[in-house]
Amino acid sequence: MFILGITSDCLDITLRLKKLLHSVVDHVLQVLQFLGVVQLFFIADELLRNRDLVILRYLIVLSCIPAVAAVCPVCHGSATLFGCAGDDSSTCPFYTDIVANSQAIAGASGAAGLLVSRVLPLWVSRLLSKDKLSVVTALAQRSQSGTAAFVLTGKTEYEIRKAVRTGRCPKEDAIDHVELEASKIDLSTLTDHAYTVAKDRKEGLLKLAKDLQKITILVESRQENETNSSALLYLLAMLSERICRDPTKGREDICLPAVDDEDSSQSKAKQMTAALQRPKSLEQMMRLLNMWVLLCHVTSVATCMTLSAFVDEVAFLPIADKHYSWPVAFEIIIQYLVHVEASQGELAIGNVRSKMGGIDAVRAAAEAKAKELYSAAIFRPHGGIPGNGTDVVQEKDISGNKSSKKGCACFNLGNPHGPRQLESPRKCKFRHACDKELNEKEANGQFKHCLNSAGTPGHKRGQCDHPDKRN
Q1: Do the Cβ atoms of 356 and 338 come closer than 8 Å?
Q2: Which of 126, 150, 406, 466 could bond to 169 as cystine, CB 3.0-4.6 Å?
Q3: Are 165 and 216 in contact (CB under 8 A)?
Q4: C-alpha dihedral over 303, 308, 309, 315, to 10 degrees?
Q5: Whole-prediction pTM value?
Q6: Each residue of 55-65: pLDDT tens digit?
Q7: 454 and 467 Cβ atoms separated by less than 8 Å
């Protein structure tokens, strides 16, 4: 009984110590959370080495982990100043504004104009006035070149005004149609209510014809100007006016011309046009294309997934593989955009390369245009070795290195020399001889090359008849 009493007292003391220890731990946790001194946890860890308190040790670890606020999965905090709550995409402008833009481009009923101020960088959004955004919407909505023209019959006054303002219908055609409809109304045979209705209709048409004479035209019709008939080209041209400047001449503020009061519609249309400026360097071209992809995606003219793949396939990959220079790559992009616009809706930016065919013809046209527009010093002589741009080296003018122990693969395969093979515009690093490997090895363990040391004189790899050639 005495032993049982001592054991009971010991257990009671142990439980009290544990409760006291728990209380101490709670106070320590409060101190840790208040001070944020995570290093003090290791002290508590040393004090709680008892296996019976291992769960408590893990709870202490979890309690010391600070809470982390969630970040918006769309903008990742970039649109916090514009109303993004950060919990989901329902309040994020990077999602809501782009969805609204896609509805505006699709012409959905009740859709507002394009929203860009909360999504684009400030300098880009300043380039896009309300009228220019209307131009983008009009260019994206109106029919492709060569498809059926805008049909005036059965259209409301609002639809006719919008068609003329956005260039879908020439102003003269709209005026002739409205005046013709007004002339068809004969008031002499009508009486009472029918007379009043017909008179109001005729007066409304005549007033519409006068309004069309002085209407503000944002985009010239295709009969007057074909250069700004594509939303993709328009956005690219508008960005190029800001990005593709001569770096030696500094920067200037954007100044839009004032509207001429004598002919406001014509001046307004000219003000809304954009002239494509060619990039002056590879860096300018890459920046221009990068911002173009962003702008097209934000305005819902095209998605970044489609455009990024198109630009990589047409420009970046061939430049990296040294198939052609960057001016040619940029002109190829322009060629494809023009073909998409003139395809009567059969081609799109995502399938123009696969459906169009004639890749060599596009490249030839782009090379001719690049040589016309760019300085000769931009182009590299054959093989990609920098030069003055006036002496184009032919393959027959490139000589081999007779002291080299390796044959030239380009010479043997009939391929053009690249920068890895040339040490100067007219000098190859390797010997222009058969590069077929032999069974004999060099001192470094690599197989020797034939180099026309035996067999038919002047033969190449494919016709090598060296008796010791390696199979």
Answers
A1: no
A2: 150
A3: yes
A4: 140
A5: 0.58
A6: 555 555 556 55
A7: yes
